[in-house]
Specification:
With 624 residues, the chain is an alpha+beta fold. It folds into two domains: 402 residues, Rossmann fold (3-Layer(aba) Sandwich), CATH 3.40.50.1820; 213 residues, Jelly Rolls (Sandwich), CATH 2.60.120.260. 18% of the residues lie in helices and 27% in strands. The strands form six sheets. It has a ten-stranded mixed β-sheet, sandwiched between helices. Strands 16, 17, 18, 21, 24, 27 and 28 form a seven-stranded antiparallel β-sheet that branches. A four-stranded antiparallel β-sheet has the order 19-26-22-23, with no helix packed on it. Strand 22 and strand 23 form a beta hairpin.
Length: 624
């Protein structure tokens, strides 16, 4: 029996194909402004499981698992938390392992299901249309049909005898995005939503950050979804031979529908192929003829805002390009009640702060979600509605901060100049006019454990972290400031302004904000990127706290070799403390190999010019 138990535990490795939080110890949150730790022991211990097919308007059945608190009192009605997953709701083990664990959990960790059911919630997990054990045609990710299904799922949930008519929704990554997409249906029963590591803007936040194609991620994510859709779990674990695959619904025709679903999945939209059709935000891909905006949360802002559903957005500073999306979303939805940004990557999976004592996420995210659901689904007055809207972590200072607005009111723009002698010049050090030349090194990279690797598990190479960048900076062009005379904290969106030229008709510019210690070691802070064709500053589809670009085909400006143009673009948001005696550095690169595709032709040289009349610069959001 001991050996069988070990085999079952090894099977749980099959569920690591999507980012999962490490913070599985409940009730012990790290202290921060507004945290409430007054929860007593859970009301229930364990859960009972049942599975169903819920039929949509076109008769498509969606595979649905329901977890109720074990020993729930007869006749008692409770709120439900729904997860709409694209990553297989449950896995079936081969006999005799199935006697020990049936089902094996898919995307949603068992610890999370157990946590919420123990506090008196039903948990409902649904394979969205065309995935897992659910049949259906899948023409695009986050398709209008998939979003519309959410209304009928909620109708079914509130019709169940155990439901009190109130529904919350949450999830990580794709599931965080489907959670918010559910609000577009404006179902009155959906009272609370907690999107975690969600995708607000499919184009700008994940596929083309800064208009630059994140091709390697798309390839790996496409491989992940194709494997799951084809019921092939071998890429995710050496123990795949211990399972039969996707868990069938326990209904009379459940196995028959599962077989039909897997056969239909073979024709699902392939994002790797679709990416070949996309360069700009409004380029259409796939047989559905949809563009990235058609499948983005921001395209449904009015419906989401008018839903009245309370939203709590949770993300991390090192979570790919998604922290920017969380903050942009909060600026465009009045029903966003809370935003939490930690020193985390995707999930969160790791604490990425270079000053952390370990990569373990010590903040209890589940407890924070419970507080939110308890208030908006159960009416418990736990004070969460009276806390500041934004809670964010300042890396380096290693403290939590709070603010009612974003960026914080105390953040004031301080402009530092890119001097012609390779200095980052502040107001106390005069700038030298001139032009600098950089021979582009196409081996430059942000390494294989960067923020970009954290967004899907097959792309990961260990814990997310940034090693000392002093060797990597030898490949870049660096502007370094004088040692700071006092500690400086920035909180917000740094903005770069470059007078730029390249010796080809296209280019990709990467800029890194870095912290240089007195011993010469270099710490990554944040980054931004742009292509000259996207240089026009113009309001995009939603309001932002930084100069924006539309990334639409009709707004593209041709670039010609040798032409000097102004590139103004934001870096990913961050809150970071530069210590006294350290220096601020901005480094320029023409590649981030392993993470981003580059256009052709590729320049061999960049030129950056600066003068007193027309400087190149970085605007830093310095806290007063």
């Amino acid at each position: 029996m001991k050996n069988l138990t070990l085999l079952v535990l090894s099977m749980l490795a099959l569920t690591t194909y999507a980012a999962k939080p490490k913070n599985d110890t409940p009730h012990h949150p790290v202290s921060r402004p507004g945290i409430y730790s007054g929860y007593t022991a859970p009301d229930y211990d364990g859960f009972k499981y049942s599975t169903y097919y819920v039929y949509m308007r076109d008769s498509t059945p969606l595979a649905t698992d329901v977890y109720l608190p074990k020993h729930l009192e007869e006749g008692k009605k409770i709120p439900a938390i729904v997860y709409l997953t694209r990553y297989v709701r449950a896995i079936h083990a081969k006999w005799p392992l199935s006697m020990l664990r049936d089902p094996v959990f898919g995307m949603i960790p068992e610890s999370e299901v157990k946590f919420f059911t123990s506090y008196g919630y039903a948990v409902v997990v649904v394979d969205v249309r065309g995935t897992g054990a659910s049949p259906g045609e899948r023409k695009m990710e986050f398709s209008p049909e998939e979003i519309a299904d959410g209304r009928q799922v909620v109708d079914w949930i509130i019709s169940q005898p155990w439901c009190d008519g109130k529904v919350g929704t949450t999830g990580i990554s794709y599931l965080g995005t489907t959670a918010e997409m559910l609000l577009a249906n404006q179902h009155p029963a959906v009272k609370a939503c907690v999107p975690r590591s969600a995708i607000f803007d499919l184009y700008k936040n994940i596929i083309f950050p800064g208009g630059v194609c994140q091709g390697p991620f798309v390839d790996i994510w496409g491989y992940t979804t194709r494997s799951l859709d084809n019921n092939n779990f071998s890429p995710f674990s050496p123990h795949a031979n211990l399972i039969t695959g996707i868990h069938a619904v326990k209904a009379e025709n459940g196995k028959e529908i599962l077989d039909k679903a897997i056969a239909q999945h073979k024709t699902n939209f392939d994002i790797t192929v679709g990416l070949q059709q996309v360069k700009f935000r409004n380029d259409k891909a796939g047989t559905a003829g949809l563009c990235a905006d058609d499948c983005s949360v921001h395209q449904r802002l009015d419906q989401i805002a008018h839903s009245g559903t309370a939203i709590y957005r949770i993300g991390g500073w090192y979570d790919g390009g998604l922290a920017r999306g969380s903050l942009d979303a909060s600026l465009n939805t009045d029903n966003t009640k809370k935003v939490l940004i930690g020193p985390w990557d995707h999930g969160p999976h790791d604490d990425v702060s270079p000053y952390a004592t370990s990569s373990e996420v010590k903040f209890d995210v589940k407890l924070e979600i419970l507080r939110f659901f308890d208030h908006y689904l159960k009416g418990i007055d736990n004070g969460i509605d009276r806390e500041p809207r934004y809670s964010y972590y300042t890396v380096g200072e290693e403290t939590w901060q709070s603010s009612d607005v974003w960026p914080p009111r105390a953040a004031a723009t301080t402009r530092v100049f890119l001097s012609g002698d390779k200095r980052l010049s502040t107001g106390t050090a005069p700038m030298t006019s001139g032009e600098v030349r950089y021979k582009v090194d196409y081996t430059a990279t942000s390494d294989s454990t960067s923020r970009w690797n954290s967004v899907t598990d097959l792309y990961r190479h260990g814990d997310t972290h940034y090693p000392d960048r002093r060797a990597e900076d030898q490949k870049l062009f660096c502007y370094t400031g004088e040692p700071l005379q006092e500690t400086v904290v920035i909180s917000g969106h740094p903005v770069v302004g470059l007078n730029f030229a390249a010796d080809a008709d296209d280019a990709t510019v990467f800029c890194y904000l870095e912290d240089v210690a007195p011993d010469g070691s270099v710490t990554y802070v944040t980054e931004g990127m742009i292509r000259p064709v996207d240089r026009e500053i113009k309001e995009g589809p939603y309001k932002t706290a930084y100069p924006d670009h539309t990334y639409r085909k009709e707004d593209a400006l041709p670039y010609h070799a040798g032409e000097v143009v102004r590139l103004t673009f934001d870096m990913l948001p961050i809150s970071y403390q530069f210590k006294r005696g350290h220096s601020i550095r901005m480094s320029v690169a023409g590649a981030d190999t392993g993470h981003f595709n580059l256009p052709s032709p590729q320049p061999s040289e960049f030129r950056i010019s600066s003068s007193m009349a027309d400087p190149s610069y970085v605007d830093l959001p310095v806290m007063r």
